[in-house]
Design a protein that fits this description.
mainly alpha; two-stranded antiparallel sheet
């Protein structure tokens, strides 16, 4: 039914586009008025919105030493310590503002199955400790919900 197509000449011979000689040579653009005006006005551009930057120095309700894992006691000298925001995502800045941060060894943070990012029971335990601290030091349950949008 279908026959194979046979060409008498190679495909490139039928192509109307041809490579120009000297195509790979570099030719700088001439300086024109429009190009120089743009470069002069480059400082007038709108500043880009800054990405999320944590407020330093960190502080925590759990410990004064953010270089030591809260669970294992390993310190920064012999282990990789991550600072975990108890209420992450949209509440990351609120976690920093109210010092709901906890230093964890990398495996207890997100590098193993038992880490806080994968262990729901551990995550809820830490969140509930923060809620209790909130009630004792900052305000009511309704105020907590208005800031963090949920009660665990």
């Amino acid at each position: 039914m279908y026959s194979t197509l046979k060409r008498k000449t190679p495909l490139k011979a039928k192509t109307p586009l041809r490579a120009k000689k000297g195509l790979n040579t570099y030719k700088p653009l001439r300086a024109s008025a429009s190009v120089t005006n743009k470069s002069k006005n480059s400082s007038a551009k709108k500043p880009r919105q800054a990405a999320y930057k944590p407020s330093y120095p960190y502080a925590s309700i759990f410990t004064d030493d953010l270089r030591t894992c809260y669970i294992t006691g390993s310190n920064k000298d012999n282990a990789d310590i991550h600072v975990h925001h108890v209420f992450g995502g949209a509440n990351k800045a609120n976690s920093e503002k109210y010092h709901f941060l906890i230093p964890l060894r990398a495996d207890w943070h997100d590098m193993a199955d038992y880490g806080i990012h994968f262990n729901r029971e551990l995550d809820l335990k830490i969140k509930r400790l923060c809620q209790e601290y909130w009630l004792e030091h900052y305000g009511t349950k309704e105020e907590f919900i208005s800031i963090f949008s949920k009660w665990w």
